[in-house]
UniProtKB/TrEMBL annotation:
Keywords: Isoprene biosynthesis, Membrane, Mitochondrion, Mitochondrion inner membrane, Transferase, Transmembrane, Transmembrane helix, Ubiquinone biosynthesis. Its main location: membrane. The gene is COQ2. It comes from Silurus meridionalis. Pathway: Cofactor biosynthesis; ubiquinone biosynthesis. This is 4-hydroxybenzoate polyprenyltransferase, mitochondrial. Its EC number is 2.5.1.39. The keyword Mitochondrion applies. Gene3D superfamilies: UbiA prenyltransferase (1.20.120.1780). HAMAP family: UbiA. It is a multi-pass membrane protein. The lineage of its organism: Eukaryota, Metazoa, Chordata, Craniata, Vertebrata. GO terms for cellular component: mitochondrial inner membrane.
Length: 429
């Protein structure tokens, strides 16, 4: 940005995309440092314009598609007056270089992304790509419902698929209409749950680096806007629920209290993951009732219990990412409850989960492929727990995300096991 051609003052802001080190980014702090760094700008008629443009840039970048943004910019400044270069002052979040240093920094900046006016990000069919391609005014709402991070939707949806698959007639595939309907409902209810969570936790999220750029915490969406958006999501979810039978409508409505109160549990108990399990696995009950008209509790309860144990496994792993911040904020979790004894607890939950799956399968006359899938689930969890490093957030995330594959593996076993029943019946005939 050329500010004064007579004095040859040039300031270029180059943003580095990295993890956010602080809870909030204060543009005025950086602008103030920049003004001090460039003494020629003091008293210049273009200072107000410069500050206005920088504020707009930083505001735009605060809602950028990337989840974690660090406006840790490097300011290259050329200041010449009477053929004399002014010395520069290091910025708090970067460095300031005079013109002769530019060539030295070019190589280090070659790998940095450039978001110029004419740059166009390639379109991607991935969830993050779809969100990035959405209009800028819509993107904060899509991020609020975590559309760019579908792992939570998968973990909510998969217990529904297990239940729908187990409820299918022997030798038949699961009801595809029900699978699609529950997929839509999972997307909407997960979004509503995230919105409620962020509304409750807005003050906490500002103080945690991983969550500081969530739309409500970052200020890109107000509390009122989030409330209106929540009403829209719940209305659409109600429309999905009304497509089911009356028994399922009543059963589905009963879960709303869990959805609303779960975010508060981390303030009062070390077992919020248990409440999350009760909430996230409600579909294990609802899927069966949607297909058959009521719940067979000899199947639904063991399946529901297994889902709750599964949630305790993966969400305890997830909670280890934030345990240091949780201690500072006074937030509770099973990660803090178990600490170094996490692996024995996870192993116990694994055994309980497998027992529930075996019991549910036996009560619905499941066959060899199902029990083969349960065995594969056991191996997956054993490897996951054995190799887990609870002190490495990146490893915790990797293990947590792998549970989507575990859930899909079990669903495949249920489908194949159900199809195997037809072969058994034909053989008996």
């Amino acid at each position: 940005m050329a500010l004064n051609s007579d004095r040859n003052l040039v300031a270029i802001l180059c943003f580095r995309w990295d993890s956010l080190p602080t809870a909030h980014t204060n543009p005025s702090r950086y602008l103030h440092v920049t003004t001090l760094t460039c003494p020629e700008l003091v008293g210049c008629s273009h200072v107000k314009f410069f500050k206005m443009m920088c504020t707009k840039i930083l505001t735009l970048l605060s809602s950028h598609p990337l989840r974690r943004i660090q406006p840790c910019f490097t300011c290259f400044t050329t200041i010449q007056r009477d053929r004399r270069d002014y010395s520069t002052v290091p910025l708090a979040s970067g460095c300031c270089f005079i013109k002769r240093d530019f060539q030295k920094q070019r190589k280090s900046l070659s790998g940095m992304p450039h978001y110029g006016v004419n740059n166009k990000r390639p379109f991607s069919l991935s969830p993050a790509g779809i969100v990035n391609a959405a209009p800028a005014s819509v993107q904060p709402y899509l991020r609020l419902m975590r559309l760019d991070k579908p792992i939570g939707t998968w973990l909510l949806y998969l217990p529904c698929t297990w239940s729908i698959g187990l409820a299918a007639d022997p030798g038949c595939l699961p009801d595809l209409h029900m699978l699609a309907l529950f997929g839509t409902g999972a997307l909407l209810m997960r979004g509503a749950g995230c919105t409620i969570n962020d509304m409750w936790d807005r003050d906490f999220d500002k103080k945690v680096s991983r969550t500081a750029m969530r739309p409500i915490a970052a200020g890109t969406i107000s509390q009122f806007q989030a409330l209106v958006f929540l009403g829209g999501q719940l209305s659409l979810a109600l429309g999905v629920l009304l497509c089911l039978n009356y028994y399922s409508i009543a059963l589905g409505a009963a879960s709303l209290s869990l959805v609303v109160t779960y975010p508060l549990m981390k303030r009062i108990t070390y077992w919020p993951q248990l409440v999350l399990g009760l909430t996230f696995n409600w579909g294990a009950l609802l899927g069966w009732s949607a297909v058959t008209g009521s719940c067979d509790w000899t199947v639904c309860l063991p399946l529901y219990f297994s889902g709750v144990m599964w949630t305790l496994i993966y969400d305890t792993i997830y909670a280890h990412q934030d345990k240091e911040d949780d201690v500072k904020l006074g937030v509770k979790s099973t990660a803090l409850r178990f600490q170094e004894h996490t692996k024995p607890w996870l192993s116990a939950f694994t055994v309980a989960m497998l027992c529930g799956l075996i019991f549910a399968g036996a009560n619905v006359n499941q066959t060899v492929p199902y029990y083969g899938a349960v065995s594969a689930v056991a191996l997956h969890l054993a490897r996951q727990i054995y190799s887990l490093d609870i002190n490495k957030p990146e490893d915790c995330w990797k293990k947590f995300a792998s549970n989507r594959n575990l859930g899909l593996l079990l669903f495949l076993g249920i489908v194949l096991g159900n199809l195997w029943k037809r072969n058994d019946s034909q053989h008996d005939g």
